[in-house]
Amino acid sequence: MKQHTILIVDDDINIGNMLNEALEKASYRVLRAYSGTEALMVLEREKPDLVLLDLMLPGLSGEEVLSKLEGTLTIVMSAKTDIENKVKLLYGGASDYVTKPFVISEMMARIAALLRLSQIKEKEEDEPETEKGVLKSGNLIFDPNLLTVSHEDKEVTLTRTEAAILKLLMTNAGRPIGRSTILDEISEDTPDCTERSLKQHVSNIRKKLESISGIDHIDTIYGIGFRFKDQ
Q1: What confidence tier does 226 reach under pLDDT thresholds 50, 70, 90?
Q2: I want to staple 225 with a disulfide (CB 3.0 to 4.6 A). Which of 51, 127, 167, 179 is the partner?
């Protein structure tokens, strides 16, 4: 697991030491700066995952430092409690705003939450757009966003109802899915699918998949429903 680095920018030694101790105890790597100018010097050689930034700093103010922290998670720490100031800073680049004095457990929870959300976002951004939501079984590739299924150089297009059914079956490949379960799961997106028409929709899917792969991918489980056979 990645060890996150956090930069504390605060000239208050007691608050800085309290944060430093709590962060190191939670296995974070900690950097310190005691003025706005020193913070920028640290940022020239380090790229912290998150900055804890006091506003009342010697040298450059916290607001001036914040303007140079674009793209870096930043929690502003300040004794200023007026809403207008908080809103201005949040619009100005701060990720969060904590009023001094604060409870260390709450600060730690806010830090963990911001870093967790950042990791989720990074993972989503790293995932190729064409791969998002795509389901695969052997050489069969189903893109529910485009409503297409391809096999090598062949491709078929599904209706929205067929795509919803196939997505449910492929997501649960190898497991029998009951007819009522299928209807319940897809009812919100495909209200046109009924108990009477479900069998025909599945038959259409089976034919389309077989036309491009030469394989029957869906089993009918008597008295239960259907099962997608993973390749």
Answers
A1: very high
A2: 179
Query: Which residue matches tokens 């190191």?
Result: 24
The answer to whether residues 15 and 118 belong to one domain is yes
| 77, β-bridge pairs | 54, 98
The number of C-alpha atoms within 13 Å of 115 and in the hemisphere containing its C-beta is: 18
Domain boundary among 86, 108, 126: 126
Q: How far apart are CA 161 and CA 192, in angstroms?
A: 8
Residue 55 per-residue DSSP state: S
CA distance 61 to 151: 60
* Number of C-beta neighbours around residue 79 at 10 A: 10
- Please state whether the peptide bond connecting residue 101 to the residue before it is cis, i.e. omega within 30 degrees of 0: yes
pLDDT one-digit tens code per residue, 47-68:
999 999 999 999 899 999 999 9
Same domain, 25 and 117: yes
Residue 138: pLDDT band with limits 50, 70, 90: confident
Measured distance CA(86)–CA(98) in Å, rounded:
9
